[in-house]
Amino acid sequence: MAGRLRPKERRRRRKKSAILAKLAVIVALSCAALVVFAIGNKIVRPFRLWFVEKQSVNQLQTKLAELKHENIELQAKREYLKSAAGAENEARRLGYVSPGEVAVVIETSKPKAPAQKPRN
Q: Is 19 helix (H, G, I), strand (E, B) or coil?
């Protein structure tokens, strides 16, 4: 009776085979998930980088437009200050006076905050 297995032994072997089959399925699914993740990462990464670069380019273009606008304003101010009227207005704004004029400075006082009563 060496070739025949007892029912208990047969059940044990079937159970062991079922466990090994389940383990093989889990390993296969894990490997498949790893491959899908690796391929997905290779596909998604360039799109993510493109999106980040596009945002950066848009921000830089906005900043460039702002700086160009500021540059135009500064060039206009420079041209104005080169004129006689512009130079005179700027000098007066800075407190300079023409010969023979007297500078008068009017100081305005800020209203003082009312004194607070001490708390008892």
A: helix
Distance of alpha carbon 3 from alpha carbon 6, whole angstroms: 10
Total residue count of the chain as it appears in this document: 120
Nearest C-alpha neighbor of 104 from the set 92, 87, 120: 92
Does pTM top 0.85 for this prediction? Answer: no
Other Cβ atoms closer than 10 A to 89: 13
Q: What is the pLDDT of residues 37-95, one digit of tens each?
A: 999 888 888 898 999 999 999 999 999 999 999 999 999 999 999 999 999 999 988 88
Strand residues in the chain grouped as ranges (E): none
Distance CA 96, CA 103 (A): 8
Q: pLDDT for 3-44, tens place per residue?
A: 676 877 888 888 888 999 999 999 999 999 999 999 988 888
